[in-house]
Specification:
mainly alpha; 0% strand
Length: 421
Amino acid sequence: MSPKDFPDDPPPGESLPSLASASWKVALAVTLLMQTVAAFLNQCVPVLAPLLTGSAGLPPEAAGHLSALSTLGTLAFLTIGNPLLARFGPVRTLQCGALAAAAGLAMAASGGMAALALAAFLVGIGYGPTPPAGSRILAATAPPRHRSLIFSVKQAGAPLGGVLAGLLIAPVAVALGWPAAIALAVGIAAAAAAAIQPSRAMLDVEREPARAIHPRALLGRGNLVGPFAALRLHPLLPPLTWLACSLATVQGCFFAFAVTWLTETRGLSLVQAGAVFAAMQAGGVLARIVLGWMADRTGNGAMNLIGQGLGGAAAVTLFVLLPPLGFGWTLLLGLLAGSLVASWNGIYQAEVARLSPPGRIAEATSGSTTLCFLGYLIPPAIFAGLVTATGSWLLPQLLAAGQLVVVALAVLPKLRRGGSS
């Protein structure tokens, strides 16, 4: 199959092939690769945070503000980016996202405070296309009986990207300096964007070439409100989104500060802390696949999310309350906590796709994910403020875990009644 078999624009009077006719295996390979690379680029910020903040003259807890700026960039794309996705197609949008994140990291190499803030924002924008573009591709191609598993395999790329960031970026930064680590990340982003180009002929066939993308179209009320209005398409979308936001709060706080917290309070070196960070992410890779398979078997993904939330809150509490036990035990506890805290997103996105009408999946995913990502944006900034105000890293972690227990129990009755509907 060659690009000429699926031209960018159909001849007059003819329609393009449907995305549903594409191979789900190709779709999964493309979305998994780009999810991994986007997460890798995004996680380079917290992994390098001790060095980046130090070079800019910022305190260590400023890592939370960088994480918040990155999430703000993701929210910006999710809020206004649907016309871009419709105009250019999911593959081209994923390519542009990777290059935008690479440009942000390259900007961070200047080391200035303003450049570092803008870099974090651009990295977040680059991550933004992965939820709606991936959901649009997989919802049309994945066999329904395996939907949670396939979405979870794709989402396994998120912690896998974190593993690569922890194992590649931290050692390179120590050995060659953090500018060399950033150069490596930029090269990986460019290679991934080039690698998926051949799939565009197959997966970008449902574009809308005439879709307006000028500022008035992007910033108009209809485009800004549309994703959130889509949450009214099913009564379970609001409680599911609330639960996802709570899960994101724990994951965002836990991961954003993990490397900095371990080096500041547990006395680990940057390479050791990076290895623990990688273990947290690695646990999420396997757990996403196993728990996605379980969600398909039980037929009630929402209840799986409730169980993961309660288990994740308990694991984080155990991780932060236990006294220092040495590098090996810290590594194992990080693996356990990451397995539960970072394994929910695939099931969540599969549930959003299942509950949404076929033509509104990308829009509903954008709206729900935007609200979900508030959990990555606001709590880390509050966390940083609490550390500064109290001088304690323990209280903010316990508060993050505690709110998840409260939310999971609050939405449990509604999701239990309707989760398998």
